[in-house]
Design goal:
The complex is a heterodimer of chains A (about 350) and B (about 260). Chain A has about 350 residues and is mostly helical. In chain A, about 75% of the residues lie in helices and about 0% in strands. Chain A has a domain of about 180 residues: ABC transporter involved in vitamin B12 uptake, BtuC (Orthogonal Bundle). Chain B has a domain of about 80 residues. In chain B, the strands form three sheets. Chain B has a six-stranded mixed β-sheet, sandwiched between helices. In chain B, strands 1, 2, 3, 5 and 6 form a five-stranded antiparallel β-sheet that branches. In chain B, a hairpin with a 2-residue loop joins strand 5 and strand 6. Classes of the chains: A mainly alpha (about 350), B alpha/beta (about 260).
């Protein structure tokens, strides 16, 4: 519909930037690998050093793909929530997805000792955390969804989501109060978020669910644009509000839920990326915004991850801290420069 | 005596409007019988709280009716699906836009949503209709402006253009002249009159601008506590209907000028 502009140049620039960031992200790390060898390894040629190939193929490459999925997925789900709730402060986590996931993980890590010492060792594995996070976010989201079908006002759903967030946060507080120092540390580490822990198999599962979420959201482009007029206008244009609302929420939960399950609760990206994109493209048309948010989210996440690696050092900073440290000033700068918030 | 008259766009029979709460229905007004013909500009007037908005909400299927029947193009309102109704009835509401970051063109083009494909691509025909709507409302030069850059009067024209682009037989506007200055009030209503004539669409609007409505409308629907009357403005003046509109302690209707004046 709104084909007044096609934005070919900015898109071209963004795609080139994405490729550059992807390459930089793979080149950097605790082990220095010459650019030539990075390139050779990527196109499948032999490199001078076997272990370099291993590092790139089995560690850096999945990590870079995870960063792209996480950045674009969270950015898109943030955009969906901001449009649905007509609220610039909404993000992918307003529906209680993170709090649900956190509760699930908290129960596994800190509640494990309550199930007895023998169980503890079995319970705390990578998969149990992923499953616990998925279950937790799914259950909280499901409850929010059920309650939200009872209310007509979309804003009420926002409040209900926030209330569920408070309830789960309180439960986590109770759990932390009774847990040991090691359990606490483990939980906090999960909360830092991490992109580098995924094997190719895990990445595949993440990707499949992510793809379903993206497809649903592509199918919602028209209703998202109609919702820009407000719900009553949207209804007068023949839009089935309840159905579109449900689809948008499902898409968000698939995207944000699985990403949180695999990479931990990554803060800020979902809230900030849509704002950055709107400032740059100054449009509200979702046909432009969705692909733009997709690429932009991936770029920002790759940059954040490259910084978190602390090039040529052995340390990796928590990705959750970097996203806010890098992202927040960018948003402030964009808002000050344009002096007007696009929404 | 036939029920099917192709000229009648909207018809109500013994309609009761009001609210249903906890199995009890609160009737606001009953026995509403109105018939709107093609190409008519119809004003809906009445005091605050008399049920104008409730009537409009009921006619547009936002709120259920209590009794009686409503038919649009000789088909009962409840038989329309969302999308079918969007092709025969468009709205201009008083509520603000959720996003004012759209351009005028984009906003008017959203009127084509019921006709476009799953991503909402505009066909040649859609583009033609959108441009025609912009032309008919004299806002071609605003085409690329963002909605937050517009004045209230301009924005109202854009919203009317959007309803035109929806290409429906019936356009319903809820108080289109609020927040506007005297000139723009007249401008908007005059525009509606022109559009009804040119496009042969039926336009129904609620308003508090009784004197303007008397001058410009083909028909008026007057809501008072006791009844709902619809007739030509001159007939209503003759019948003295306007004197029953408001409590008589402050203002009175002057039949010679067709407007209200404050009692001395």
């Amino acid at each position: 519909m709104l084909d007044s502009k096609t934005y070919k140049t900015p898109f071209l620039i963004l795609v080139i930037l994405l490729i550059i960031c992807f390459f930089i992200n793979i080149s950097l790390g605790s082990v220095f690998i010459p650019t030539k060898d990075v390139f050779n390894s990527l196109i499948g040629n032999a490199t001078d050093n076997q272990s370099w190939e291993y590092i790139i193929q089995d560690y850096r490459l999945p990590k870079a793909f995870t960063a792209i999925i996480v950045g674009s997925g969270l950015g898109i789900s943030g955009l969906l929530m901001q449009t649905l709730f007509r609220n610039p402060l909404a993000g992918p986590f307003v529906l209680g997805i993170t709090s649900g996931a956190s509760l699930g993980v908290a129960l596994v890590i800190m509640g494990a000792s309550m199930f007895g010492g023998v169980m503890a060792g079995i319970l705390i594995s990578k998969w149990s955390i992923v499953i616990a996070a998925s279950l937790g976010s799914f259950l909280v989201l499901f409850t929010v969804l059920i309650v939200s079908t009872k209310v007509r006002d979309t804003m009420a759903i926002l409040i209900i989501g926030l209330m569920f967030g408070s309830i789960t946060a309180a439960m986590i507080n109770v759990l932390t109060y009774f847990s040991s120092a090691e359990e606490l540390q483990q939980f906090i580490f999960w909360r830092f978020g991490s992109l580098g822990n995924l094997s190719w198999n895990e990445l595949l599962i993440l990707f499949i669910i992510y793809l379903i979420g993206i497809c649903i959201c592509l199918g919602s482009i028209k209703s998202l644009n109609t919702l820009l007029l407000g719900e009553n206008y949207a209804k007068s244009l023949g839009l089935n509000i309840k159905k579109s609302r449900l689809l948008i929420i499902i898409s968000t939960s698939l995207l944000a839920g699985t990403i949180t399950a695999f990479a931990g609760p990554i803060a800020f990206i979902g809230l900030a990326i849509p704002h950055m994109t709107r400032q740059i493209f100054s449009t509200s048309n979702h046909k432009i915004l969705l692909p733009a948010v997709f690429i932009f989210g991936a770029i920002i996440m790759l940059i954040c991850d490259s910084i978190a690696q602390l090039p040529s050092s052995d340390y990796t900073l928590p990705i959750n801290a970097i996203t806010s440290l890098v992202g927040a000033p960018v948003v402030i700068w964009l808002l000050v420069r344009k002096r007007k918030m696009m929404f | 005596m036939s029920n099917v008259n192709p000229n009648i766009v909207l018809k109500t029979k013994d309609l009761s409007i009001g609210y249903i709460s906890r199995k009890k229905s609160i009737v606001i007004t009953s026995h509403i019988n109105i018939k709107l013909k093609k190409g008519e500009l119809v004003g809906l007037i009445g005091a605050n709280g008399i049920g104008k908005s409730t009537l409009l909400r009921t006619l547009t299927n936002v709120q259920p009716k209590l009794h009686g029947s409503i038919s649009v193009n000789n088909k009962p309102l409840e038989d329309y699906s969302n999308i079918e109704l969007a092709k025969v009835l468009s709205l201009v509401l008083t509520e603000p836009l959720a996003s004012k970051n759209l351009t005028v063109f984009e906003l008017v083009a959203l009127g084509r949503q019921p006709y476009t494909n799953w991503v909402g691509n505009l066909s040649k025909e859609d583009l033609f209709i959108v441009n025609k709507a912009l032309e008919q409302t004299n806002i071609i030069d605003l085409k690329t402006k963002k909605c937050f850059e517009l004045s209230d009067g301009q924005l109202q024209k854009v919203m009317i253009a959007r309803a035109l682009a929806q290409d429906t037989d019936l356009i319903i506007l809820d108080e289109p002249t609020t927040h506007l200055d005297m000139y723009h009030k007249a401008y908007i209503l005059k525009l509606l009159q022109k559009l009804a004539k040119e496009t042969n669409k039926t336009i129904l609007f609620s308003s508090h601008e009784i004197d303007l409505a008397i001058q410009l409308c083909d028909k008026l629907i007057v809501m008072t506590k006791d009844k709902v009357v619809s007739d030509k403005p001159c007939n209503l003046i003759e019948k003295g209907t306007f004197n029953t509109l408001f409590p008589k302690d402050l203002i009175e209707f002057d039949e010679t000028t067709g407007s209200f004046r404050v009692k001395k």
